[in-house]
Amino acid sequence: MGERATKIYSFFLCAFTGFLVGFGFAYTSNLLEGERDNAIVFTVATVAISVVAFVFGIFLHIIVHEAGHLVMGLLSGYSFVAFGVFDQLFVKQNGKIIRKKMSIVGAGGSCHLSPPDMVNGKFPHILYFFGGVLANILFSAIFFLLFFLFAQNAELLARGFLVVAGVGVYFFLLNLAPHKIDIPSDGWFIFHLGKEKNALSRRALWARLRVQAFSAQGLRSRDIPAEYFLWTEGQDLSDPLIFAAAAIKYECFIDSQKIAEARECLNELFEKTENMPGSYKHAIGAEVLFCEIISECRPAEIERVYTDSLQEYLKASNDRPETQRTLYAYELLVSKNAEKAKEHLEKFRAVLATESEEIKSSGEEIIDLIHKKT
């Protein structure tokens, strides 16, 4: 499903969900005999409970969606890495579950699991990705049942239940649709990832999921086995999944403080971001900015890279250690603002406070690298 088709599908999906809820409201009205005592008060109450139920429904279905991935992933042989909803992230480190602040730009929730080994170029993925939409439709069914149980005796409450169910139906149908615009939908993974023509995308996803597990366990980027990213050389980096796997190579270079190699790798990646989602483009752009600052630090180049949209991205990803070390380098070496630089250094170390000793050590080495430029 292409971008235009997906937008049209989303529009009709909103209309369908609205029709479903409206039909349910009409159904409850028909159950009553005669007119209501105060139609205006009832209408206002319906609007109020619908708004509350809508917000509650979004929160609920985000949580159950990610929980569905978690349950089905574990049943498929995956191992737990992290689970997050809204700004809370629970990560397994050194055998313990610790709580952090989630800093994934634009994400309402996340479920990171480490997949089992690949066998003949494949790994179990269908149940894992189907788990989210399955949880949404199951909870929608529960709230539809509650709607019918309360429709005659507690109409307002029943309407609230119906709205929550409608949100779940929307989540189910939207995520089940196989599209690949920003990041692939659950439906794309379910229906397309297993195809032979997507073998490289499948390998890339597996590699990225494994590397996320390594990071959570404290393994430094420079120690990630080359087999996870070297295969991407010469591949089509316009595929977001392969692109993400190729970026592992840059992470290894920057953690090893091989700045020249890191910049060369970045240039290759940045050339491929023209038609990529903004999140990819800005994430790579932030690294281009950082490498420029700690290498040649050319004012014209920094001004070219440090666009308004990149600044907005850095604000939105304020809780990421990469963001804080980039802003620290910028304030210290470009703006020469010692006070702001100190603020970003403190935030950087605060973000690292919950990380493993290996990751903290990596962060301090980056700070030393920045200081060498002063």
Helix-strand blueprint:
Layout: H1 3-31, H2 39-75, E1 79-85, E2 88-93, E3 96-101, E4 109-114, H3 126-150, H4 155-176, H5 186-192, H6 199-216, H7 240-255, H8 259-271, H9 278-293, H10 299-305, H11 308-316, H12 321-335, H13 338-352, H14 357-371
Antiparallel strand pairs: 1-2, 1-4, 2-3
Helix pairs in contact: 1-4, 2-3, 2-4, 3-4, 3-5, 6-7, 7-8, 8-9, 9-11, 9-12, 12-13, 12-14, 13-14
Strand content: 5-15%
Low-confidence spans = none
Rounded to the nearest angstrom, the distance between the terminal CA atoms is 51 Å
**Could you report the average pLDDT, rounded to the nearest whole number?**
88
Percent range for helical residues?
55-70%
Q: How would you describe this structure to a colleague?
A:
- Helices cover about 65% and strands about 5% of the residues.
- With about 375 residues, the protein is an alpha+beta fold.
- The chain has a four-stranded antiparallel sheet, with helices on both faces.
- The chain has 14 helices and four strands.
